[in-house]
Each structure stands twice: as C-alpha cells, then as structure tokens.
Design goal:
Elements: E1 2-6, H1 16-29, E2 33-36, E3 47-48, E4 55-56, H2 68-76, E5 83-90, H3 96-109, E6 114-119, H4 124-130, H5 137-152, E7 157-160, E8 165-169, E9 183-185, H6 190-198, E10 202-203, H7 210-226, E11 237-240, E12 244-245, E13 257-258, H8 259-271, E14 276-279, H9 285-299
Parallel strand pairs: 1-2, 1-14, 2-5, 5-6, 6-9, 9-10, 11-14, 12-13
Antiparallel strand pairs: 3-4, 7-8
Length: about 300
C-alpha cells in the first residue's frame, strides 16, 4: 500500500506553478500518485450532493477547476515515476471514443503511469450542459466502459450498443498496457459497487466511517466472486476527504488527524487490502506535503 494526494488544481490556490511544484515535491518525498478530479461547473443554486444529501451550496472552490486530463498531461512531462490519477471523471458526460483517445494519449505520454477513476455522474446540471440525459446513468456508465475497452483493443474497432455505436474503425494510439490503463469506479451506493465488481473495475470509495468502508469493500469483493472474478485482482483505492494535521484532533473521521493518529488507523485500512490511499486535504499545499513526508517516514 502506498499513498497519494489530490493536486491543488482547483480553487484560489490553483495555478500552473503551484500544481507543478506540488507534483514534483510529491514525487521527491516518495508519494505513489497525485490525483485530479472533474467538475464542469459550480452552479449557484443549492444541489443535492451526490444525489442523496439535502440540497446545499457547492464548495466555492469549485468555481475554478482545472481540466483533469490537461493537468495530468502537463505533469507527465514534469515528473518521471509518480502515477497520475483521476478521482473521478464522470464518464457519461463524455463520448467514449473521445475520452478513450484522450486517456490513451495521456497514458502513452506518461509512459504508462495513468490510473483512471471513473464515476457515473450525479449532478443533473452537468448532464444538462453535456447534452446527456441523466436517466439510466448506471447502464450508460457500464456501456461506456465497454466502449472504451473496445477502443483500446485491437483494430479494427467496432461497438454496437444501446447508447453508443462505433463504426468499424482504426483508433489510436493504444494505451501502454494491453486492455488499457487501470480503471477504478468511484462508487458509494451498493448497486454501483456491485456493478463495478461485475465490470472488473477496481473500487475508489470515499471513507466516511469504518463501518461504511468495511461494508463497501466486503460487498465489492462478494459481488466480484459472484461474477466469477478474482477479488484479489481488483484494486481498492481509498479516498479520504479530510486532512492530516499538525496537531491531534479530539473528533475525527478515519485516516484524518495528526500523523500519529493516522498511523494508528493504517493497520485497519491495510487489513481491508487497500492498494493505495488518497488524501484530498483542505489545508495549504505546503502543509499537506510536510505532513505527508512525516507520515511516509514513519509508515514505510
């Protein structure tokens, strides 16, 4: 298991210089990956976050979000070994051919360092501006993954589905690894978690409590077995929407708080078989790197 950080590619701190310095320093201290996400717009009206929470304003930082693939392509030329990941891109908001080609190009440019976290999307306003109906987005997501895998397969490519069709074509470049870069599903609902397992995707859950994380990972592995897949072959990448802090916290979520408190939590997340932990922190980028360097020194 190794660790990663969300890039400062959104909000008032985002700038080309900040993003590059952050990624270069993350690589220097030994982090396994840096991550981006996609948000097409910050609507002013309150929205139901994730589609299930009470309506509330979106974070003000979402007013500026750098495109994830352009950002990672920029970093591919400024780093050499650290993995470059998305957590996550709402796949149905994109054409599968266009997205597959962009991902393959980034994978080739980075020397095969790309890790792709995908979601089915949830914000109805984003579906509207993308010109995609939000209904049956789970089924659309599954077919989108199949269409992208077809694009990454041998030429000539052809795909005939309910939502997407690709005429017999030659489509390149192909990704570095046969079949494409590692794919993760950002999933919370049990049906979405089970779908990810059936599709042979890894899982990228957000940890909200230990009980929730245990149930999610257990359900994912059970669904993989039922689908005839080897659960051990499907990676689990845990996302922490919270910070590692300089001082201990009296009340905290899993994998947040001081370095010592996070060190106490790591055996539990290791016992779940997690391959990687991403922190999406709310502190200054320099502070994030400092606490992660201390965590790496003591944990590895």
């Amino acid at each position: 298991m190794d660790f990663g950080l969300n890039l400062p590619s959104y909000g008032p701190v985002a700038s080309p210089g900040t993003i590059v310095r952050f990624a270069e320093e993350a690589e220097r201290i030994g982090l396994g990956a840096v991550w981006t996400f996609e948000r097409l717009l910050r609507v002013v009206e309150p929205v139901s976050y994730g589609g299930f929470a009470p309506p509330a304003p979106l974070p003000k930082a979402y007013a500026t979000v750098y495109d994830p693939l352009e950002t990672l392509s920029y970093l591919a030329g400024r780093t050499s070994g650290i993995r470059l990941g998305t957590s996550v891109i709402p796949a149905p908001l994109h054409s599968p051919v266009v997205l597959a080609r962009r991902l393959a190009t980034l994978d080739v440019l980075s020397g095969g360092r790309l890790v792709v976290g995908l979601g089915q999307g949830w914000m109805r306003q984003e579906f509207a501006v993308a010109g995609v109906p939000p209904e049956r987005r789970g089924a659309r997501f599954a077919e989108h993954v199949a269409a992208m895998r077809a694009v990454w397969g041998p030429d000539p490519v052809r795909f005939d589905g309910e939502f997407y069709e690709i005429p017999e074509s030659q489509i390149g470049p192909k990704p570095v690894r046969p079949g494409g870069p590692p794919l993760l599903a950002g999933a919370v609902a049990p049906a979405a978690v089970a779908r990810a397992a059936r599709l042979g995707l890894g899982l990228n859950p957000v940890v909200m409590s230990w009980e929730q994380l245990d149930e999610t990972v257990t359900g994912f592995r059970r669904a993989a077995e039922q689908a005839g897949r080897d659960p051990a072959s499907l990676p689990v990448v845990v996302r922490v929407n919270g910070s590692v802090t300089a001082k201990p916290l009296d009340e905290r979520a899993p994998l947040t708080g001081s370095v010592d408190q996070v060190l106490e939590d790591l055996p539990r997340v290791r016992s779940l078989g997690a391959a990687h932990v991403i922190w999406a922190m709310r502190t200054h980028p320099d502070a994030q790197l400092a606490v992660m360097e201390e965590l790496l020194t003591q944990a590895l």
